[in-house]
Amino acid sequence: MTHKITTNWKGNMLFDSDNPSGHHVLMDTDVEGQLREGLSPKALMLSSLAGCTGLDVVSILEKMKVVVDDFKMEVEGLLTDEHPKTYHTVTLDYHFTGKDLNKEKINRAVQLSIEKYCGVMDMFRQFAEVKTNIHFHNV
C-alpha cells in the first residue's frame, strides 16, 4: 500500500497538507509577530503516535466488549539539543476513566497496540526510546 500526500505553501510559515482520506491539516511554526494557524510538524508526529495507538486500543476494546467513559492520551517528546533536533525519548500516558474498569482487558488492549499493531509506534522505536504508562480513573 502506498500513501501519497500533497503539501502546499500558503505564505509565511503556513503549509496545508492533504491526506489520502481527503482531509487537510495546517502546519506552521513559531515566528515572532505571526499568528499560529496550524500544528508544528514535530508535534504532529506525537499526535500521529497517539492517533495510531488510540485507534488500535478503541478497536480492540470494542471487540472485547469493554466500556470506558473516557479515554485520552498525553504524549511528551524530548528533543535533542543539537540540530537536526529529533525526539530521543517519548513518553505516552494512556488515561482511562469509567466505573468498574476492566483493568486486565484494558492492559491487554494497550499491550497489543504497543507490541503488535501500531506501525507509528514501531517507527518511533527506530529513533527514540518510547515509554508507556497506563492510568485508571474510577468514577
UniProtKB/TrEMBL annotation:
Coiled coil segments of this chain: none
Signal peptide: none
InterPro entries: KH_dom-like_a/b, OsmC/Ohr_fam, OsmC/Ohrsf
Any one Pfam family match given in the protein's UniProt record, by short name: OsmC
SUPFAM superfamilies, A to Z: OsmC-like
PANTHER family: PROTEIN YHFA
Name of this protein: Putative redox protein
Organism name: Olleya aquimaris
